[in-house]
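To: structure subgroup
Subject: Chain for Friday's discussion

All,

I'm putting the inputs and outputs inline so they're searchable in the archive.
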Amino acid sequence: MGKIQQFCDMVKDAEREVKRWGTSLTTLRKKAAAKNLDIAELLQSFEAEITRLRETLVKAKEIAKTDVEEAVGGLEELFEFFEDVGMAEGAVRMAVNVVQEVARADKELKTMDRKIANWKKQKLDTSKIESVLSGLKEQIAGIKALVGKKGFDPEELKELIQGVFKVWDELNNDVDDLEKPQ
């Protein structure tokens, strides 16, 4: 009786996760379409992982009719796929969210341009900040270009985003130094 209960619990958990990922896929497809993102390959990869889970689940249920212990083993294999599905979902989610974050970064850059203009009126040396800001603008332009490409590499996007965060921290430190009372 213990293996049957274990199997039923595992099926319930797996079905819940498959349903959640299916809902997530639908939501992310809509968001990508609304933002005119061409991430079909990422979406297809995510969908393929969900399909693989569904097929493994159906297979395990079929096996359970004759051998519950073997079916439990099949479900254990299914749970190993969860990491792959999670990574596929993360890649799609990152691509969708980056568009919103880039828009926010653009606003911050405009604010920084205004601050620089004010500092210059105060005769403060903004050359270091302007140099870092220029590099940051280039990196953000690189992210925009990458996201605009068909079938971009999520790992490349992740690296570019990490680079932007590093430069953004540098910029904030330089701004703090400039704004410190002398």
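Points worth raising on Friday:
DSSP finds five helices and no strands in the chain.
The helical segments are 2-34, 40-64, 68-121, 127-148, 154-179.

D.
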